[in-house]
Amino acid sequence: MKTVILAGGLGTRISEESHLKPKPMIEIGGRPILWHIMKLYSHYGFNEFVVCLGYKGYVVKEYFANYVLHNADLTVDLAKGAIEYHATNHEPWRVTLVETGEATMTGGRLKRVAQYLTPGEPFFLTYGDGVSDVDLRSLADFHLAHGKDATITAVAPPGRYGALEIEAGHVQRFVEKPPGDNGLINGGFFVLDPKVVDRIDGDATVWEQQPLEGLAADGQLMAYRHDGFWAAMDTLRDKNHLEALWASGEAPWRR
Fold first, then answer.
1. Mean pLDDT across the stretch 40-46?
2. 3-state SS of the chain: helix, strand, coil percent to 5?
3. Do the Cβ atoms of 252 and 228 come closer than 8 Å?
4. Taking 70 as the threshold, does the pLDDT of residue 163 lie above it?
5. Which residues does 91 contact at the CB level (< 8 Å), separation at least 6?
């Protein structure tokens, strides 16, 4: 199964860094968060990626074009103008990088890369700014078993503030930053049948609106619940939190 990654947004809420590079190229532990996401899929044996580019897409292209160069021992023969690669440290990835337009919405980006999908074969779709320890093999198996057109991963968002349980003015219980208020949100790890692309009108279509709403209304959207770690890098605060987890050596998504 191929994995489509939406990596073309502006990342305005983390403009401290995104004014220089696209949001998926902001680094956690010296590696772009895009790399961390791809490592998660690769851990489960999914090594073919289609990356939807937009804002500063050339930065992503340059990163992968030079990936082997930057991660290998090599000998440069200046007389011959040749480079000999020795011990390499790179992943078995096949990465297709597609310019999908700077102003294109999420659904439009997916429609623009449809030609790079395998006909009749389900594929993953995810965002280029979220990490998790979700079991992607189990997610894929769940999708194949239910036979519907789409699967969405449902997660409880991490809490931002401490929660109080109060009775008659007395604090009965305090919980530091509990998960969300028992509500579940779109965790961004989808498995989709290629026919869902037919629900996308064009560049202005937001995937999270008409296409997903239509799938739900038609009974074609199933939810895979993930109760483990999940985090989106929306702000500099989020980035610093993920950086601290990675530096501790205990990042839940680390593979």
1. 98
2. 30, 30, 40
3. yes
4. no
5. 38, 39, 42, 47
Rg of the chain, C-alpha, whole Å: 20
Summary mean pLDDT of the chain: 91
Instruction: Mark 163-181 as b/e (b = at least 16 C-beta within 10 Å).
Output: eeeeeeeeeeeeeeeebee
Tokens representing 128?
């280029």
Dihedral, CA atoms, 17, 152, 108, 7, nearest 10 degrees? 20
Tell me the range of 80-84, 109-113, 159-163 where mean pLDDT is highest.
109-113
Exposure pattern of 41-67 as b/e (b: 16+ CB <10 Å)? bbebebebbbbbbbbbbeebeebbeeb
What is the separation of C-alpha 75 from the centre of its chain, rounded to a whole number of angstroms?
35
Could you give the CA distance from residue 41 to residue 192 in angstroms, rounded to a whole number? 15
Looking at residue 165, its pLDDT comes to 62
DSSP 134-158: --HHHHHHHHHHH--SEEEEEEPPP
151 forms beta bridges with 191, 222
Give the end-to-end CA distance of the chain in Å, rounded to a whole number: 19
Residue 52 has pLDDT above 90, yes or no: yes
CA distance 24 to 9: 9
**C-alpha span between 246 and 35 (Å, rounded):** 13
C-alpha span between 216 and 212 (Å, rounded) = 6
* Phi and psi torsions of 84, nearest 5°: -110, 120
